[in-house]
Amino acid sequence: MTTPALHPHLQLGPVELSIADLARSADFYQRALGLAVLKQDGQRLELGVPGRPLLVLHERSGAPMSPRNSPGLYHFALLLPSRADLGRWLQHAARLGLRLGQSDHLVSEAFYLSDPDGHGIEVYRDRPRGEWQWNAGEVRMASDPIDIQGLVSESGAQLPWTGAPEGTVMGHIHLRVRDLAATEAFYTGVLGFDVVARWPGALFVSVGGYHHHFGLNTWQSENGPDASPQSAKLERAWLRLPDGAAVHNVTGRLRSAEVPFTEEGSVLSVRDPAGNLLSFTV
């Protein structure tokens, strides 16, 4: 009996990170990205927009940055609802003097920065799906310059950035991995994602026809060491499915492939071949 594919209505939940200084990180994420504090419990801080946690920070006092060539987080990507929102955020970032990278990926327009612990961040907007170009099941993406003037002009001079809009979501997560062949076998053959793009040293996978839910690359980490347990690093990425049956289906796929996993209540957790922890829940 064939196990059904991964549910197409998967959504990405919050990303959990360990950081060195909770007060410093809380200030950065509120000031730079406009995230709101949703809950704090001792050394654990939950940030996001009303009703939607996007980031969970765990303080590990004085933790050093993880090596750039360790498997782990390359960046997490916050998807803003509109191009105007992205333009307003860009002007806000410029006023703060934030150092940004930028790229027009054809399916999206994206800006890149790092938090105080070196965790990579992308802030982006999607072009309408009707503008995405597909060929033989793969979506066309690029790294072209953004039309900054057009982006800013669309944002509206009289509408300042007032924080992350309520429609902001975790759009995708990009991970550093060691072995692309093993990674592809796990994310597609075991979990049931679809390959939607291949670049030299990188793989992009999704469900439901999205341009990518996960980016996976070996650009720096193919022969890199594991991050120290004491370092500031990716702790977990959450994936949300629409119902218990969809989570149970993932359990079945893992059992069939004889991949170790854990179940704790309604949470199913598994590590990819590079050791990145993924947790599925409803």
UniProtKB/TrEMBL annotation:
<protein>
    <submittedName>
        <fullName>Putative ring-cleavage extradiol dioxygenase</fullName>
    </submittedName>
</protein>
<dbReference type="GO" id="GO:0051213">
    <property type="term" value="F:dioxygenase activity"/>
</dbReference>
<dbReference type="GO" id="GO:0046872">
    <property type="term" value="F:metal ion binding"/>
</dbReference>
<feature type="domain" description="VOC">
    <location>
        <begin position="11"/>
        <end position="126"/>
    </location>
</feature>
<feature type="domain" description="VOC">
    <location>
        <begin position="169"/>
        <end position="282"/>
    </location>
</feature>
<dbReference type="InterPro" id="IPR018146">
    <property type="entry name" value="Glyoxalase_1_CS"/>
</dbReference>
<dbReference type="InterPro" id="IPR004360">
    <property type="entry name" value="Glyas_Fos-R_dOase_dom"/>
</dbReference>
<dbReference type="InterPro" id="IPR029068">
    <property type="entry name" value="Glyas_Bleomycin-R_OHBP_Dase"/>
</dbReference>
<dbReference type="InterPro" id="IPR037523">
    <property type="entry name" value="VOC_core"/>
</dbReference>
<keyword id="KW-0479">Metal-binding</keyword>
<keyword id="KW-0560">Oxidoreductase</keyword>
<dbReference type="Pfam" id="PF00903">
    <property type="entry name" value="Glyoxalase"/>
</dbReference>
<dbReference type="GO" id="GO:0004462">
    <property type="term" value="F:lactoylglutathione lyase activity"/>
</dbReference>
<keyword id="KW-0223">Dioxygenase</keyword>
